[in-house]
Amino acid sequence: MANLPPTLSLGGASFGGGAAPPSPAAAPPSPAAAAASSQPTKDRKIASAEQLVLDLCDAELRENALLDLSKKRDIFQDLAPLLWHSFGTIAVLLQEIVSIYPALSPPTLSPVASNRVCNALALLQCVASHPDTRILFLNAHIPLYLYPFLNTTSKTRPFEYLRLTSLGVIGALVKVDDTEVISFLLQTEIIPLCLRTMEMGSELSKTVATFIVQKILLDDVGLRYICATAERFFAVGSVLGNMVVSLAEQPSPRLLKHIIRCYLRLSDNQRACGALRGCLPEMLKDGTFNNCLRDDPATRRWLTQLLHNVSNGTLVAALQPGGLEHLMGN
Predict the structure, then answer these.
(1) How crowded is residue 282: how many other Cβ atoms within 10 Å of its Cβ?
(2) CB-side exposure of 273: number of CA atoms within 13 Å?
(3) 132, 192, 256, 329: which is deepest, by most CB within 10 A?
């Protein structure tokens, strides 16, 4: 009894033969106790992460360290600042990236080499995602090291995996709405590189590339940039239009969602909206994608608003028979 908390001891003495007080095991732990019990686990994780980061600087241990860190990056809190501020770590990750440049052209990248550099890219994505390291990542112009991977055209699995993982890093940057990020990317070749992937990548890499273009368009600076010249607008519009045609044969609700959102945002610009009246794909008007969008009310609303915008507010006149009226009826 001496080891019990005072309240439990007093309770047992006062109520003698009454109901036994709850045992300590049955009582929920206090916040302080829970924190104390989790501290050793947290300390072990920190020690493990620190050791793996140190292993990155050892050429013999690096491959396994890259693999382990990329797999466990979500359970290591503040891994990004640790990677960024530890001596030589970012240089090691960049070394991993540039070491495979010679295998890009002619395309000789092996699956093993692709997996290894993608593990390094996964750690850079961690840095790009963290609020304390995102701007530092941009100021060092590290995204530029990924652009050669986005400029490849081989459709083999090693190259597709490399493109997809590189797009994931850029996607992590734009996921948080930040005009500074968009302004940086617009000073680079990110839009042409994304358009290239949107034309020839796999469904998943097309989806991520279209998401990046969408996030750029959703920023006022990005929308003004793309709509500033006819060449930029029609470059984006042409690729989006070709993707719509392709989706009519092989539907992808996820990809279609991002395409429609891009078109809707373009329609917010007066000049672009006028141009869309002549180049918006008919398949978006005639009910081709009714079934594809049946279970996606948000995208259906976007499509409704898009057609409303490009028809000068006379939505019904812009619709083909059986088009959006049928879609809205679903």
Answers:
(1) 11
(2) 15
(3) 256
Whether the ω angle into residue 22 lies within 30 degrees of 0, i.e. cis, is no
User: Which residue positions in the chain have pLDDT lower than 70?
Assistant: 1-45, 313-330
Helix (H) or strand (E) holding 41: helix 31-56
Q: Are the beta carbons of 194 and 209 closer than 8 angstroms? A: yes
CB 159 within 8 A of CB 114: yes
| DSSP secondary structure code for residue 1 in this structure | -
Distances 89 to 128, 135, 138 between C-alpha atoms, Å: 15, 17, 17
Q: Which two tokens stand for residue 283?
A: 């398949």
Residue 20: the pLDDT is 39
CB 223 within 8 A of CB 262: no
CB 317 within 8 A of CB 311: yes
**Exposed e or buried b for every residue in 311-326, given b needs 16+ CB within 10 A?**
beeebeebbeeebbee
What pLDDT shows up at residue 77?
Answer: 81
* Cis preceding linkage at 106, omega within 30: yes
**Can you give the pLDDT at residue 32?**
52
SS3 at position 178: coil
Give residue-wise pLDDT tens across range 113-145.
Answer: 999 999 999 999 999 999 999 999 999 999 999
Residues 6+ apart with CB under 8 A from 218: 177, 265
pLDDT at 182: 97
Q: What is the model's pLDDT at position 312?
A: 78
Q: How far apart are CA 146 and CA 162, in angstroms?
A: 9
Cβ-contact 5, 27 below 8 angstroms: no
- The one-letter amino acid code at 204 reads L
CA distance 208 to 188: 18
- Proportion of the chain in helix, strand, coil states, percent, rounded to 5: 70, 0, 30
143 and 185 Cβ atoms separated by less than 8 Å: yes
CB distance 81 to 130 below 8 Å: yes
